[in-house]
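One such shown below:

_____
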Amino acid sequence: MKIRLFEKQDTEQVARLFHETVREINIRDYSIDQVEAWAPSNLHFRDWAEVCSNRFTYVADDEGVIAGFGELECNGHIDCFYCHKNYQRCGVGSQIYQAIEAKALDLGVSHLVTEASITAKPFFQRMGFSVVKEQKITRWGEIFINYRMEKSLYNAA
């Protein structure tokens, strides 16, 4: 497994990975209506190539198969962070997270922040994040619970 920065040719795999993960993994914690609003049938509801290229997006590349990805913004916000349904609970997320944290430290970021799903909350807790607050967000008319989580990097360095 190689952790590397996103390249434009990863776009289709990243879009599919996001869609399939939300619909097949996050369905455990959210309703069908919620996951359909979160991951619409149109894979390209978001300009994946543009967004991923404008952030520090790390992908886990397993000999050409994207096993997961995570996006770090310059301000320390982690946006999308997903592992492929076939690569759950085998260390892929931890490897991506380590690359993100190392980059954040290089950038001089003092805190990492994310809005974790119910599904992702335990992962981020294992990475040292604490829940700041439970949130209710609305996307395409559906209300979701997620968690604003934060980690100080001064303690991690």
